[in-house]
Amino acid sequence: MYPLDRLPVKGTLSVEECRNALEALLARVEVLGRRFPKRVPLYAPGRSDEWTVSEGGSWVGGFWGGLWWLRALVGHAPADREHAAELCRHLRNKLDVDSVNRSLIFWYGAAGGAFGFHDEDAGALLQEAAIRLAATYSHELRAIPLGAAMGGGVKGRACIGVDSLASLVALLAHAGADAAQHARQHTDTLIAVCATECGAFFPEASLSEGGWQVQGEAGAWPRGQAWAMLGLAQAAVLWGEPYVTVALGACRYWLRRWPDGRPLQPAGGVLYDLSATAIAVVAMQTLAPRIADGADLERHAHAQLAAIVRSEYLVLDDTADSSLRGLFHGACYTTRPGVIEQVESLWGTYFLATALSRQADFQAWPKIRKPTT
Description:
Layout: H1 15-35, E1 40-45, E2 52-54, H2 61-75, H3 78-90, H4 102-116, H5 120-134, E3 159-161, H6 165-172, H7 177-194, E4 204-208, E5 211-215, H8 222-239, H9 243-257, H10 274-287, H11 294-309, E6 331-336, E7 339-345, H12 346-359
Antiparallel strand pairs: 1-2, 1-7, 3-4, 4-5, 6-7
């Protein structure tokens, strides 16, 4: 295991650079909001600005609401807060969707209102979503299964995955002792099944008569490793050890494998998933205050954030079309069967904006991460 201070660190952003990039991202959100007032923009290939949209938002709808809560928290505009609250209300029809990805929808879509603005409707929705999700806990799996909806299929009722770990842990921590205990047991099961000694995580596993079977290659899918880091960092905040140690191991694996913050998408040719880097940065920012060498981890997070902002995947100055300013097309996504493209995505923009807001000393998001139970 390599000490953090022996891993290479290159450059950081000034507070002004962070704030300029954040302003560009949030201005882009406003542009998209004007274009799609009643629908959710899911993704757009490259710099095409040609969006696939949805009425319901699928699993990414919460990030759309989350971006508007962030606009309201940073810019203090009542209209942004009202729009975020409206988007939050529209999430209610996802309460009974048979998918653990409900946690992504409701945590990221409602927590900004509940904890940033003490919005009663957002708080009630968060609580209701947590209770319903906790009710799907499987004593056989000792975890909350993926579920059959949102692509899970029949096998989803016997599967667990890393994607939703952070949102599940955060959401259930606010729904009472029993729900929090289910979240902790889910985390323990995921670690026991999907973690490796080197800190790499398998993205998914399923339970059959022969026991647990892991899927894919541990640590190969950048966004999967980043999701695991984020979930473990959230667990470390809530429960301390042993989650601090496991989270740090996952971060160290990331930094050894992708020290430049440009992780290659497996089987995707030469495609870099910088949305995974944005998630990883937020994970490192979350974990750093909880560890002894947190300053070193924070420096690595700053360096990887700089790699994103200074990359060719974030548009900060487009003289031909100013509406493209703030376009971040650094997410790898399967846009059709067998085809992976780099796209502009809601989750990529959300996590990049969150990372920038933290480094720029906007104290909006850290306070909504603290449990209230």
